Amino acid sequence: MANSIAGLGRLERVELRAAWASESGDFTPWLAQEDNIRLLGEAIGIELEVEAEEKNVGPFRADILCKDLANGNWVLIENQLERTDHSHLGQLITYAAGLHAVTIVWIAAKFTEEHRAAMDWLNEVTGEDILFFALEVELWRIGSSPMAPKFNIVSSPNDWTRSVSDARKVIEQGALTESGQRYVEFWTYFGERIKERKSSLRIPKPNRDYWKTYSVGRSEFIVSAQALARDEFIAVQLGLLGLRAKRRYQELMARRAEVELALGTPLDWRELPDRKESQIRLSRHGMDMKDQKNWPAMADWLIEWTEKFQSVFRRIAKEVDIEEDGSPEDVL
């Protein structure tokens, strides 16, 4: 037994400056690379797409500007290869004050207790459209192996708890209709089924919306799970958004046979010429949300087909209209 473990190495902590001499010249360009921003996204549970580095946001410059591919909201990343300070905290609060829907990520070598507490407090007092993450970055290696980065979350929004709490407040204040309350309860159940099935889908915030969105790894391509109580049907669809929606729809339509073969079912192709958006949808009718006995079948169907849509369109979206989208729009 002793011989079988004799070759095990020992993890050694490495100083951050050994890999990144400066924040702006080394760490920020490294983090903005596709594989590395994916590593950060996995740590915070958000699929990110880099839009710009050193982007002006009001009087400040955000180190990295990203899009949250699940909902199109902005994600601002601020880096600090040292102990946190009040100056950076002030910048983050300024960002939040000027934007309506944003996720703010603060990465540092070490968070002081007061700054961690401040991030916790910001997540408690802000609305659900503004989220704050605090992460410490570390470097490790075994022997002479390459250095490996590790992100440790020290503060994050408790989305699930806050969403349920907010919904409860709205119900108590009488602001939710009976239909709205039913949606909150159904999406709560939907999240529970995702857990039970050990699905790869993100657990959504339960609210009064009839849809929940999911990413396929590219902005303006959005998969949504839908449950329409009034019309008694459920659906999963790919929504094509933005100025190139119609062009992208035509490219996908040209590959209709390939798409439907990959999914194993015919789809409803909706160009919607009078609207900016186009849709590719699969629906199931006769599903009455008012009867909770239908919820297991509804949730399982939505989970199964959302997973399939994500898998198929994640691959195909990378091959459609691959020209650069140009510079990101101003965020303030």
Descriptive notes:
Strands 1, 2, 3, 4, 5, 6 and 7 form a seven-stranded mixed beta sheet that branches. Helix content is 37%, strand content 29%. It has two domains: 10-157, Trna Endonuclease, Chain: A, domain 1, CATH 3.40.1350.10; 161-317, 2-Layer Sandwich (Yope Regulator, Chain: A). It is α+β, with helices and mostly antiparallel strands and 332 residues long. The chain has helices at residues 2-5, 23-32, 34-44, 86-98, 113-125, 159-172, 178-196, 245-253, 256-263, 295-317, and strands at residues 11-14, 48-57, 60-68, 74-83, 102-110, 130-142, 148-155, 211-215, 221-228, 233-240, 268-270, 278-285. A hairpin with a 2-residue loop joins β2 and β3 (60-68). The radius of gyration is 22 Å and the shape is globular. Residues 160-164 and 324-332 have low confidence and may be disordered. α7 packs across α10.
Short description:
This protein is α+β, with helices and mostly antiparallel strands.
Task: Give me the secondary-structure topology.
Blueprint: H1 2-5, E1 11-14, H2 23-32, H3 34-44, E2 48-57, E3 60-68, E4 74-83, H4 86-98, E5 102-110, H5 113-125, E6 130-142, E7 148-155, H6 159-172, H7 178-196, E8 211-215, E9 221-228, E10 233-240, H8 245-253, H9 256-263, E11 268-270, E12 278-285, H10 295-317
Parallel strand pairs: 4-5, 5-6
Antiparallel strand pairs: 1-6, 2-3, 3-4, 6-7, 8-9, 9-10, 10-12, 11-12
Quaternary state of the chains:
single chain
**Which sheet architecture does the biggest sheet show?**
7 strands, mixed
Number of strands: 12
Q: Helical stretch count?
A: 10
Distance between the termini: 62 Å
The CATH class designation of the largest domain is Alpha Beta
CATH architecture of the largest domain: 2-Layer Sandwich
Write down the Rg: 22 Å
Shape: globular
Task: State the low-pLDDT regions, or none.
Answer: 160-164, 324-332
Please give the share of residues in helix.
25-40%
CATH topology of the largest domain: Yope Regulator, Chain: A
Average pLDDT for all residues = 86
Structural class based on helices, strands and sheet pairing:
alpha+beta
Strand portion, in percent? Answer: 25-35%
- Please indicate the count of domains: 2
Sketch the topology as an H/E string, one letter per element.
HEHHEEEHEHEEHHEEEHHEEH
